[in-house]
Amino acid sequence: MKLSRKGQYSVKAMLDLSLQPGYGPASVRAIAQRQDLPAPYLEKLLIQLRRANLVISVRGSQGGYRLAKPPQAISLGSILEAVGESIEMLSDFDRHAAEDWVTALVWERLNRKVRDFVFTLTLEDLYFDARSRQASQGDQTTFII
Asked: pTM higher than 0.85, yes or no?
């Protein structure tokens, strides 16, 4: 499974929102600056995430977007699905063109396992994995996703 830019940007934005004090709102511009993402495209992704009930838009001068649920309740799979990403390792795998039924069965089961895993991996898990990786590389001064 390879994430497109759309998937990468969506996950980065959601991780950024999970780092906000009290999970308060952050503006599109602020997220885009922190994560080095194009703001207009990020806005479109956040609208898709809002429609999937993963973020809430907050109006006003201190508004922006905030998580609709705690980070431990938002899975990587739900983020990717919200923006139309494929969750299968081989989304274009033709089960009927497989050399034999064993090969088709193996790939179908593998895709199922990957899908199950992606829906159990949460924003909280991703945050701790990123922090662990950063600490192992000796970089403790900044945290950019």
From this structure: no
